[in-house]
Amino acid sequence: MLTLAIIKPDAVSANNIGKIVAHLEGEGFRIREAQLVRLTKERAESFYEVHRERPFFQPLVSFMTSGPALALALERDDAVTHLRKVIGATDPAQAEAGTIRRLYAESKERNAIHASDSPENAAREVAFFFPSRR
Ligand code: CMP
Questions:
Q1: pLDDT computed for residue 44 by the predictor
Q2: pTM here?
Q3: Mutation pick for ligand 1 pocket among 8, 56, 99 (CB with most ligand atoms within 8 Å)
Q4: How far, in Å, CA of 63 to CA of 56, rounded?
Q5: Res 79: pLDDT
Q6: Ligand 1 atom nearest 48 alpha carbon
Q7: Which residues of the chain have pLDDT under 70?
Q8: Domains of the chain
Q9: Given CB 3.0 to 4.6 Å as the disulfide criterion, which of 28, 60, 105, 131 pairs with 92?
């Protein structure tokens, strides 16, 4: 089973790609696809369209387009659920010790990593970055 992770611009600019990828590999994920991307405003709005009406939508799009991000298609048993557990809560202050967001995120907005939240969204989000995996 595949899921999508995005190492966000804050973590890329802080030189944390290597540590985060090592953490993911240590949790048994295999990297099936990887691409460093600079999202356009249109692509970021499309990716986060479910959040369009939320107050944090424009700041989120602006942050996600602020620099390169690393999109990863990750494979593991129970990939969606396990990745959500490994990244921790959206707000790093609420995230459990040892989770990626607790270790590397700066704030609820600049929170280091995205992970698909359901198998349906994982399929959509993997295909969004890696159309050949459709
Ligand atoms: P992510 O998992 O990428 O999905 C939506 C993102 O919106 C979330 O991570 C946060 O980075 C961002 N966000 C910013 N503010 C909020 C908020 N108040 N509640 C939820 N998500 C937020």
A1: 98
A2: 0.97
A3: 56
A4: 10
A5: 98
A6: 5
A7: 134
A8: 2-133 (3.30.70.141)
A9: 105
